[in-house]
Amino acid sequence: LIKGRERMAVDLKSEPLAPQCGVTIHDIRLAEAEGETLDAIRRAVFEHGVAVFRDQALSPEEHIELAKRWGGIDINNYFPLTDAHPEIAVVRKAAGQETNIGGAWHTDHSYDQVPAMGSILVARTLPPKGGDTLFAHMGAAYDALDEDTKREIEGLEAFHTADHVYKEGGIYAQTDIGGELRGQDLTTGATHPVVVRHPSTGRKLLYVNPSFTVTIAGRSRADSLPLLEKLFAEARNPQHHARVVWEPGTVTIWDNRTTWHNALNDYHGHAREMHRITLTGEKLAA
Fold it and tell me: Are 208 and 231 a contacting pair, CB within 8 Å?
């Protein structure tokens, strides 16, 4: 029941993006999505991890209003922001730059005490080819683990931080995009269960990632790495992956609890600019 009345389920016209991850949703204009339609999109994102929408003419104002209808907006602490709309972070690589943002497997904001739910990403400038984004389904990755490993990680927690990536002297500071990023004085750190239950679907999800998860709680980095690398290896299995090929007018919405993603950096000499709004999440539980 929603506000005292039963909402009718909306059947979306959709098809799988890959066998275990992702969905392409057709015949939806996101600028107008609300009510039962938006509820159906949420369910699809929560289940499949990422939803792709083509041929969207989504203005910055419509982008923001869609995010507000979805829920709260988290302002990104690191990426450049658009001048007119500070809710929108700019994910860009200029034609003359070598480094891209997000060019490694990761889960956004896992280093926050309350990680972001996900993002709405709008393609604004695309290279002639390349610049695809890979997604990996963490429910499929967990399900594929052997039973001994599932027992081993039950009840464990892991520590996440972005300091080695974004702080002054960190990974990005040493590249040709370092000068564009904000937040180099910030300190981050959060501990989350290694296995979480999705707050809406109840599905068990592997919640560690190679960019921001640095230790198993209570263990040294050296003692943590064998187990972490074992979990990362399963999540890197292409059977759990989907590939988003960007086109003009493409919008994706993804769930950070359910997926990793990786922006491929294979378009040197060409510009790519995406506009991202980060969606507020909730505290994660085992």
Answer: yes
Give the end-to-end CA distance of the chain in Å, rounded to a whole number.
26
**Which one, of 84, 94, 113, 74, lies nearest residue 283 by Cα?**
113
**How confident is the prediction for the chain on average, in pLDDT?**
94
Contact of 56 with 29, CB cutoff 8 Å: yes
Residue 279: both structure tokens together:
């969606």
Q: 3-state SS of the chain?
A: CECCECCCCCCCEEEECCCCCCEEEECCCHHHCCHHHHHHHHHHHHHHCEEEECCCCCCHHHHHHHHHHHCCEECCCCCCECCCCCCCEEEEECCCCCCCCCCCCECCCCCCCCCCCEEEEEEEECCCCCCCEEEEEHHHHHHHCCHHHHHHHCCCEEEECCHHHHCCCCCHHHCCCHHHCCCCCCCCCEEEECEEECCCCCCEEECCCCCCEEEECCCCHHHHHHHHHHHHHHHCCHHHEEEECCCCCCEEEEECCCEEEEECCCCCCCCEEEEEEEECCCCCCC
pTM: 0.94
d(CA 75, CA 86): 8
Kindly report the number of other CB atoms within 10 A of residue 257's CB atom: 28
Q: For residue 137, give the nearest of 50, 262, 27 by alpha carbon.
A: 50
How many other CB atoms sit within 10 Å of the CB of residue 150? 14
Look at residue 1 in the predicted model and tell me its pLDDT: 35
Residue 6's pLDDT band (boundaries 50, 70, 90)?
very low
